[in-house]
Write a structure and sequence with these properties.
Helix content: 40-55%
Structural class: alpha+beta
Shape: globular
Bound molecules: zinc ion
Distance between the termini: 21 Å
CATH class: Alpha Beta
CATH architecture: 3-Layer(aba) Sandwich
CATH topology: L-fuculose-1-phosphate Aldolase
CATH superfamily: Class II aldolase/adducin N-terminal domain
Strand order of the largest sheet: 4-3-2-1-5-8-7-6
Strand content: 15-25%
Length: 222
């Protein structure tokens, strides 16, 4: 069982980090890490305070929803996390947050276009909106499954929050921060009522090609 301990600790560490920085809001949001090479994930439990949680509280489940470790109930969004890992072999960590500015953009049903080159390099060509479905439902997991096939690493869940993906917890965390920066700039720019300029298409495609080539290498390893 020892091989799960460092992953449980990492899930806890990143959940605390996100909670302390205000990205999770109370017991909202959830994060998971895929056990490399296995159909197993370590995920935050449902409805628990991240800052008083211990590594033993992190749930370890297989992709058939069978428990392996942990006495608490896993996050209600576990199906959504599993769906992402099944659809995207390049993804090793999923973070679902209720971060403020990106959640605000999720209310206006506008995808965020390619505004910055680092945005496209790490998050994808745009930040798309996943159509609304209630939290914790199979319907939401199905909507996510369809949308993540575009190989982007950040999404807005309509009237709910965000979804950030990455090959490692470090990268998913970086993507959460980058998404908030991009969402904040986009909202402020929208407030001016001026035309919002995007990066040139050729630069967007070069940046996205870098992300895709990294993803393909990771998918081959899985
Ligand atoms: Zn949520």
């Amino acid at each position: 069982m020892d091989d799960y301990e460092s992953l449980r600790q990492q899930v806890l560490d990143y959940a605390c980090k996100l909670a302390q920085e205000g990205f999770l809001k109370g017991t909202g949001g959830n994060i998971s890490i895929r056990v490399p090479g296995k159909n197993i994930l370590a995920i935050t439990p449902s409805n628990q305070d991240y800052l008083t949680m211990a590594a033993d509280d992190i749930c370890v489940y297989d992709f058939e929803h069978q428990p392996i470790l942990g006495a608490l109930k896993p996050s209600i969004e576990m199906s959504l996390h599993i769906t992402v890992y099944q659809a995207r072999p390049d993804v090793g960590c999923v973070m679902h947050t209720h971060q403020e500015f990106a959640s605000a953009v999720a209310l206006i049903n506008k995808s965020i276009p390619a505004l910055f080159d680092e945005q496209v390099r790490f998050l994808g060509r745009s930040v798309e909106v996943v159509p609304y479905a209630p939290s914790g439902t199979g319907m939401l997991a199905r909507q996510v499954r369809k949308t993540v096939k575009n190989n982007h690493n950040a999404y807005l869940l309509k009237n709910h929050g965000t979804l950030c993906l990455g090959p490692t917890p470090e990268r998913s965390y970086h993507n959460v921060l980058l998404l908030e920066k991009v969402a904040t700039a986009y909202l402020l720019a929208l407030c001016t009522n001026e035309k919002i300029s995007k990066i040139p298409v050729v630069i967007r495609e070069i940046a996205f090609a870098k992300l895709r080539s990294e993803q393909k290498k990771l998918a081959e390893k899985e």
